[in-house]
Design a protein that fits this description.
413 residues, 10 strands
Amino acid sequence: MLTDDIRKPKCVAVICEYNPLHNGHAYHISRIREEIGDQGCIIGIMSGNFTQRGEPAIIPKYERALAAVKSGMDIVVELPFPFSSAYAETFADGGVYIAERLRASTLSFGSECGDLATLEYLADISLSDKFISAYESNREFRGSAAFYETLTAVAGISHSIKPNDILGIQYIRSIRRHRYRIKPSVILRNGAGYNEASLNDCSRDNEKNEKFTSARAIRDFLKNDRDSFEKLEKYMPDIMCEFLKNSIRNGEFIIGYKNIENVIMTHFRLMPGLAFTEIADVPSGFSKRLHDAALHSSCFDEMCRTLCNRSFTMSRLLRIILYCMTGVKKTDMDTGIISYVNLLATNDNGRKYMADLRRQNGFILTKPSDCRFLFPGSERQTVLAESADALYTAMMPKCRDAGYFMRKKPYIV
């Protein structure tokens, strides 16, 4: 638990990706605003340029953050890499820790079931000795799926647990494990499911006749048809549509690893078969499999098909590829230290909140380059952040230099 805790009762944190921000996200923000009023503060703890599935965000972090502030948030800070691309457990730990450091009173998240008591019950089960023993014996080989499978077995649940509920359980679990003071709060998810991939299959209307779909459906549509953008406009706030169009026009729009697939193949072909044994999330024996698959595949997709199966998902593989390319080690995830967060966007209300906060701690940086002047122990976080941003800029259709994001400044609305 953090000491010297001074927090305002109407400060709500949201852990998010907004890849991209759609009407469902805007609905969540508006519901929080209704509950806390204009004087309350909403803080977004948002993934940077790489997201939890191990994929690059479709547009850069600063523009996604600005869209969030223009949609009702007051502050958006970056959930640092590699926490932003980690398993649900580590992703949640990083986000909840930041929310606690920023003195939020409440952590709000979308939920498919909308039942906080049920999620708290399942979180308690996941902290039991019975669950932990079963989970630890299975997690290396099953990845994130091990948590879900173990939890349903120990809890005796026959129905599936939806993705946002799984994340919610992890948020509550992190709060209780670390004895944080922040309180969880759920908002029933309105519209399409997290994994629904088709606009036609998953669009929903609410009482205001707004159209809802999933971020995945929007990304998949843009991957295949960028020329029919007008079909997407009803699913996103106007500001997000504008930023997406600008990113396509300016050469900053990214879909997957397509622009550097051959670079990735070459990297794994030329490195020795045991070169990646110390990389985070790489299970025993997988380093050589990765090397061999790159050698014997004619393209990136073939390499991925060779390595993936029911127990080894594409998300896990992409996460490993990302960690290998950026040098994230097992020790980086075990240590789990977040020394600072970068401010991405804010408004006047957010600036007032941060003015009070800075008197309590120097956790938020307004200039990324200021990280060079922090205390010892922050260097590794900075090295990994610079590696991730250097990879991301190389993936842009219009390539930027590696230090492009180090020179960026937060948007002040």
